[in-house]
């Protein structure tokens, strides 16, 4: 009997190894499928151990006694029993791991499109037999609760694949799994079983999102409908109580991580697949999840929540696991818009109650190869910039969403007075040197200096706030005291659009090729932001000129270097026009435009001409992604034109309506002519628009825009621009006309 048991255990491992090699190669299962059922049953290893326990006891004792006799020592019965149990447990553990690995491989072969059809039929039949004969789902749920983390992980992986298989094959979802999840998610948010449920559900949802060929909305609805009320109960249990009331904080941290991931998947299914369930609205309508930002929990969990809120407000939830992006032109979702407003209001209310005061963003030093600072290295302390950027963006975005649904200018001004000072107070200790020594509008470029997509989203939201506040103004009239006071507040509260644009240009060294890279790329919202700003620039030209004066004066007073990366050539090249001059006396307020008619004729005084070259030295110019000054188009470019047009179609469809009002221009049709290169501007000596180190912000800005205009013309002539730039060129031409009148 003892010999038979040992042969049986060895045979199990041998058969499982043979099956592993076949499945690994994707081979057809030609043998009897039912013969594999016994060996893939997770109960087999435990039964074998129990059987061998009574039979092999004397055999193990004989072996140990023989070893002890050779060395003249005796083995205690307790030591014999311990060695026997370790041997049996180790063998059972290995067999179970191999079984789970094989089950997961079989399911992967069934779900893979690369598996040969005949082999896939055999794997599918084997899976169905496992479900029917041994109730594989129930066995996996039991192993899922095992204290061994590796066994639990593999069981969760198998269970997720099994549930996804049931959804793909249009089968009934496992009743034992539904009952297990409903029980543990409703009972307590601290239990380890709840974490297992959340992890498995999240894994299944990710697999559904990845599969572009299945009926994803129907599969998700079948998966989530049984848990719609359960999720809401778990949400309330997790977020509605104080952290000190939890008995097991370590399990709560795991629950928070898993549930935040599940919340992101729920919101993503709403945006991408137009699925409508109550649980998808929890984060929007029940904002007490924000309370965890004040809990004594690890910073990475707070960061995860802030980033999730940022993705929700930007409608970018699910970009990490969805293959396709949200289409720009889609039918409006008024229910989602109202939920966005509710989330924005809740966030602003929490900010007013001191949310950012309670949020700490401690940074961790970046250490190559470890988490300790090596001797002799200086520790660089700083904030967690990821959390800081996300918190900043959701604050500005929440104000934008609120103002989009507000018609009272008085109410909007009151909200700005209430929220922005608190927000800037939150930023000041995080930024070194402090914003107190600089223009508060600089916060945006300093916070988002390492993340251009978030920076442009924040700039666009800030511009939208300004446009909502000034939509009733008549920009053609002179500035009234009320307007001057409000423009003063735009600087003081850090959302003046012209300052923000100038800081943006300064960060890219006023390089037009960087702007061109942003315009061609579809990875940021720069095109939408740039079009809106150019429209504002033509209407608000006087304010822009005054802002340029203030910008130059601010740099001079603060001792900030304004060195121009494009040095001026020698005098006497050709004529140019002159930057406007406005008086800046000791009593002049640097926050308010110096004159309402800043674009009027300049004061008569001797002028000194400084012609400006169109291109600076390559060694001192930030390198662009593409060489846009390439040679003339070759014959190959002409023959490849239809292919270029086909590639441009998809990108053009994603552009905002401002750029799509004209058809795509082609060769043979009338084109706009490239403006002739000419000296751009000259600066008056001793004016706020000039300095000894280079040209002033106004001159550099206009030159940058004109270089951009010429680059777009060149690409359009070669049929290389990815969409119709006619509306964009029209706006740039309008700015050029404004400069001609200066």
Automatic annotation (TrEMBL):
Basic and acidic residues composition bias: residue spans: 667-676
**Acidic residues bias spans:** 629-640
Q: For the region Disordered, give the residue spans.
A: 597-689
Superkingdom in the source lineage: Eukaryota
Family matches, as InterPro entries: Lines_C (IPR029415), LINES_N (IPR032794), Protein_Lines (IPR024875)
Every copy of the Protein Lines N-terminal domain together lies at: 201-548
According to the entry, every stretch annotated as the Protein Lines C-terminal domain falls at 701-737
What Pfam families would the database entry show? Answer: LINES_C, LINES_N
Q: What does UniProt give as the signal peptide span?
A: none
Supply the PANTHER family for this chain: PROTEIN LINES HOMOLOG 1, WINS1, 2 PROTEIN
Protein name as annotated: Lines homolog 1
| Annotated gene | Lins1
